Amino acid sequence: PISNHATTATSKVNQKIMADIEAPTKESHDGGGADTEEEAMSDAPEVDVQLARNIITRALLILDAGAATIFLASFAGFVDPAQWTLTLASSLGVSLWGVLLLLSGYAFWKNRRTNLNGLLAWTRNLSISLGLFTSLLTATLMALGAFMSCGPHWTWLGPFYHFTGFITALLCLLVWCLLPRLVRPYVSSSLEESRHTRPVRPWVAILLIFGTFVAPLCILWILAWYFTADPNLDVSEFPDFKMSPYKQPFPEGETTFAFQGNFGKFSHRYSYSYDFMRPCGSPILASRSGGVFYVEDRHDGNVWTKSDYANNYILIYHDDGEASYYHHLQQGSAMVKEGDQVEQGDPIALVGNVGRSSGPHIHFEVYYLYSNIPVSFQDVSSKVAGIPRALHFYKSGNGP
Question: Which of 40, 51, 66, 203 has the largest CB neighbor count within 10 A?
Answer without folding.
Answer: 66
